[in-house]
Design a protein that fits this description.
Layout: E1 2-6, E2 13-14, H1 15-20, H2 26-34, E3 38-41, E4 44-45, E5 51-52, E6 57-61, E7 80-83, E8 87-92, H3 109-119, E9 128-129, E10 138-144, H4 147-158, E11 163-171, E12 178-182, E13 185-187, E14 195-197, E15 205-214, E16 222-229, H5 236-244, E17 267-276, E18 281-286, H6 291-297
Parallel strand pairs: 10-17
Antiparallel strand pairs: 1-6, 2-5, 3-4, 3-6, 7-8, 8-10, 9-10, 11-16, 11-17, 12-15, 13-14, 15-16, 17-18
Length: 299
């Protein structure tokens, strides 16, 4: 796969500096050097220490990634929200794990994406997960279709510039219309899965806006909230609302009530926004609530 940019500037610039400005990392330089890639200026091979001048076209040639045979393709159809040569955004149903692990190595979203890439006869068959969701959270998952796309989005994740919004239903009536939960999260001692708010945890920030308070049924008080993640810790939304005393409906792990026949936590990733460097514009993608959460909305 090739990517080309044109240098515009009055002074000469090193190839390495120019490419770093377009998201090419030290690791990618190493991969091109050792795995059959190339760097070209006006079609001719150059070194990263060489200089370019105004109007020069610089091209990187990325080596094709070898497929990992340990990731078995699953040809279950995907609910694709957006796809081009760089990105794949899918609407993940609850009950599907994002990446292979001890609980599931055959039918995860990554297995399904590999099956999709094989069907599409793609050159690169390595799915790069940019954003992931818990097994029983539904909604948008962003994957990069090659390592360069993954690298530039990973930097945005580290900068917290990828905007991710969720709809959640929590037990109880939240008193404030808007709030920012700024509490550190870490692993619970002696528990491989569960997380808690703890002083020595990692910085974690969750912002929310109340959309509706369900107060007519005294046996099932509930609040629907729009949630934005400003960090991306494991179980962050679930842990933060449970810490406030308003666990998510259906979230048995964190003390949420098993109301309305829900078989999972009432949490859906419905919107995301990120900067796409390949078109130099922001992309905003969204999806509707699934049937089980739509039923709660209409109560």
């Amino acid at each position: 796969m090739e990517f080309t940019w044109t240098y515009q500037g009055d002074e000469q610039r090193k190839v390495r500096t120019f490419l770093q400005g377009h998201g090419v990392s030290h690791r990618m330089f190493s991969q091109m050097k050792h795995n059959g890639g190339a760097i070209l200026a006006n079609g001719q091979p150059v070194y990263t220490a060489d200089y370019i001048k105004n109007g020069d076209q610089v091209t990187i040639v990325m080596p094709i990634e070898e497929s990992n045979d340990l990731v078995v393709p699953d040809f279950h159809p995907l609910d694709i929200i957006f796809e081009n040569e760089h990105w794949l955004v899918v609407d993940k149903p609850y009950g599907v794990t994002t990446v292979p692990g001890h609980a599931d190595r055959l039918h995860t979203l990554v297995n399904q994406v590999k099956g999709h890439l094989i069907d599409e006869k793609a050159e690169d068959l390595v799915p790069h997960v940019v954003t992931r969701l818990d097994r029983d959270t539904s909604g948008l998952v962003l994957l990069a279709k090659h390592r360069f796309a993954h690298a530039v989005l990973d930097q945005q994740l580290q900068d917290h510039s990828v905007e991710k919004f969720y709809i959640a239903y929590v037990q109880g009536i939240l008193p404030e219309d808007h709030g920012l939960i700024d509490e550190p999260i870490g692993r619970m001692d002696g528990d491989f899965i569960k997380r808690i708010v703890r002083e020595d945890g990692k910085v974690s920030k969750t912002e929310y806006w109340v959309e509706r308070r369900y107060q007519d049924d005294p046996d099932h008080p509930m609040t629907r909230v729009k949630v934005q993640l400003h960090t991306g810790r494991t179980h962050q939304i679930r842990v933060h609302f449970a810490h406030l005393g308003y666990p998510l409906v259906g979230d048995d792990l964190y003390g949420g009530p098993l109301w309305f026949g829900l078989k999972r936590q009432a949490l859906h990733a419905y919107q995301m926004k990120f900067y796409d460097p390949f078109i130099e514009e922001n992309r905003q993608l969204s999806t509707d609530l699934p049937a089980d959460l739509l039923a709660l909305k209409n109560l």
